Amino acid sequence: MHQVEIATTQETLLDSPEMVLNMGPQHPSTHGVLRVVLRLDGETVIDLDCDIGYLHRGMEKIAENRMYTMIAPYWDRLDYIAAVSNGLVWVETVEQMMGLDVPPRAHYLRTILTELNRIASHLLWLATHALDIGAITVLLWALREREEILKIFERQFGARLTCHAWRVGGMPNDAYDDFHKDVKQFVNNFPKRIDEYETVLSENRIWLSRTVGIGVIAAEDAIAIGLSGPALRGSGVAWDVRKSRPYAAYADMDFDIPLGENGDTYDRYLVRLEEMRQSRRIVDQALENLPDGPVNAKLPKIVKPPVGDYYHSIEGPKGEIGCYIVSDGTAQPWRVRVRPPSFVNLQALRQMCIGHLVADVVAIIGTLDIVLGEIDR
Amino acid sequence: MLLLAPVDVLNDLLLRFFSDETVKYFIWPLIQIGLVVTLVALWVAYATYLERKISAFIQARLGPMRVGPWGLLQPIADGLKLLTKEDFIPEKADRWIFFFAPYIAVASAFIVFSVIPFGPDWAVIADVNIGLLLVLAVSSVGVLALILAGWSSNSKYALLGGLRSSAQMVSYEVAMGLSLIGALMFARTLSLSGIVGAQGSDSIWYILYQPAGFLMFLISGIAENNRAPFDLPEAESELVAGFHTEYSGMRWSLFFMAEYAAMVVVTAVATTVYLGGWYFPFVYRLEESGYHNLYVLVSVLVFLVKASIILYIYFWLRWTLPRFRYDQLMDIGWKWLIPSALINIVLSAFAVFVLQALNGWRGIQTIEGLDRGMNLTATGKGIMIAFGLAGLFITGVLLARINWRSRDFNLKTQRRNIRLVNVPKGKPARA
């Protein structure tokens, strides 16, 4: 168990003793099993410390004892909110190691489905973030839209949450018959639903007072900590793996990167909302230009990448999720390491929270959009 | 008189066994109390049902549907479930205080109903001449229960919840009391029945004279009840459940009942003071036609409907708005509500003064009589309503003047937009 040092050297208001408050691992709004130990002066946070590892499953170690194709389902369980994106980073890394040529149709389908997954993940973020700040209704509205995406996933992959979406070299099967129709319907309905959230939250006075100026992180600090994804773009840094190192079919897509200015919770909220709109745009484009053809490349019976180490990353919903694989030429990787965006983003929590109130800690954990499955691995 | 004829039969029966005074001052009040407690308990239970249904409709779902038709028996099922649950007291808790805190909460919420006029004549238990004062005094005892519960649980979350609630309720109590004073200037009495009677004989609802006062009372009432968007003491995403984190079973549900009963109290007071209580146009005809008991019953119904409309506002707000932060809540209490309540008192006093000064000046007649509250002529009413609307405006301007420096003032103009950049395809992006 992680020991937290309690020092009472700092002067507190009215010379009252500091209080150490243990938030989590069982707490309604630490988004899983995160344990945050807060040192409070009244309700002001003087210091905090995160304790992680309650969901550690030893993914990276397990991967050393599995064949390359067998590891993929484990990867879906890293960030279980965005299983499709996580699966993609594994298969793409292995494909690059093998030098496989994935057919364009598979690339396009991957683009569509990962973007749908991004929307689903952002919707769940919006739901829980709004719930943390007290807007309970947004939770159910956002989950209603997420349900539409999960229905598409269920028909495509056979599962709703931890869908095992990909195979090394392509996809297990082609899109189902009504895929085009279902996705099109979602794409057409979605914009007015986002507008609905905007009417409830974006100009809501209480929402503004809870998010504007809360959890500010400057662009330099964000880069220094290594933030990625919406948390980084909220601070105004135009870094998006989809643009800078395009994978799947993103090089053919036309979309914008939303950037915030101040790096506060409100900016990150706006960035994520806009990202959902852009994702919808990408899905629409990819669906229009979906090429015909096979969805699988030819693959040897046993995947044995050549000796060497490889790093490949994609833009997951939470940020840059990367996969570093060291191959010794056998059917099993010698060492695997994940670059988990939530883990890196969580580092910013302390810097963002100090000086704010307990209520803000909850809002800031929400705005970082962490998933403990990925932090603890 | 045909309706409720058994009442007279019962009265005769009682008189056979007891003396006249016993029946009048002891037995009938007991029956009244029983009726009111039953009515309020049912109201509270079905307020939870209504809240669940309304929240469900707001959130695009159905709400309780399984227990009884449309889930109508859900509150009863919930009550039974809570009764049979384990009553758990934490080992390190201060047992006796932990034990008694819920009773204080429920008692302070229910005692208030002794002076609430649900209707005319026998529909009010006690018409005390300091009724409104009693309501404010007794309902503020509820804070004590919250502090005790929060402290005795020996849990940090409960303690923080208790601290928050004590600060919150104490500061909003002030605003709540002050915002009522404007209406009292017209009613000229603190008796709740008297306030209703004053509105009845003046044929007006005081919400028209006191729109600002009504708004302030409603806001501070919601805050006083710890309801969203001011539900900080039990902010579930921060403090787990606030002061009742450690409570379970029936003891927890007593807090729950107390919360809803306190809500009903505020709606009842708001109805009485601002919406004319049980008074409704044309219902009086029933009394004139000789149906006295029917008249009382219809009046009670009118009262309940009016109060339920305000209750609906509670639910509506809760399921629409996010939660304030603790310091923001205090800001609203001290920087907005209390100044506005004070401004409202000054403006109302000025309005009454003008009204009296105008009376008889150049033949203008504004006041008809003062024996049952202020009875105004049509001219007087017009002037007062104009003053009320002007009061809203003036209060708003003055408040803006007081608060324009604060960070949270007019946040909408501070709202920013995000930039959209299109980085060239396949090129590394730069900030």
Describe the structure.
The complex is a heterodimer of chains A (377) and B (431). In chain A, a hairpin with a 2-residue loop joins strand 2 and strand 3. In chain A, 47% of the residues lie in helices and 12% in strands. With 377 residues, chain A is α+β, with helices and mostly antiparallel strands. Chain A contains 15 helices and seven strands. In chain A, the strands form two sheets. Chain A has a three-stranded antiparallel β-sheet, with no helix packed on it. In chain A, helix 2 packs antiparallel against helix 3, helix 4 runs antiparallel to helix 5 and helix 5 packs antiparallel against helix 6. Chain B has two domains: 71 residues; 239 residues, no CATH class. Chain B is 67% helix and 2% strand. Chain B has a two-stranded antiparallel ribbon. The longest helix of chain B is centred in the N-terminal third of the chain and has 39 residues. Chain B starts with a helix and ends in a 10-residue tail after the last strand.
Blueprint of the fold:
The complex is a heterodimer of chains A (377) and B (431).
Chain A: E1 19-23, E2 35-41, E3 44-51, H1 59-63, H2 68-76, H3 83-98, H4 104-133, H5 136-157, H6 179-201, H7 205-211, H8 219-225, H9 230-233, H10 241-244, E4 257-259, H11 265-288, E5 308-315, E6 320-327, E7 333-339, H12 341-346, H13 348-353, H14 358-368, H15 372-376
Antiparallel strand pairs in A: 1-2, 2-3, 5-6, 6-7
Helix pairs in contact in A: 2-3, 3-4, 4-5, 4-11, 4-14, 5-6, 6-11
Chain B: H1 5-17, H2 20-58, H3 74-84, H4 95-111, H5 131-152, H6 156-187, H7 192-202, H8 206-209, H9 211-224, H10 236-239, H11 249-274, H12 284-288, H13 292-318, H14 326-358, E1 367-369, E2 375-376, H15 378-403, H16 411-414, E3 419-421
Antiparallel strand pairs in B: 1-2
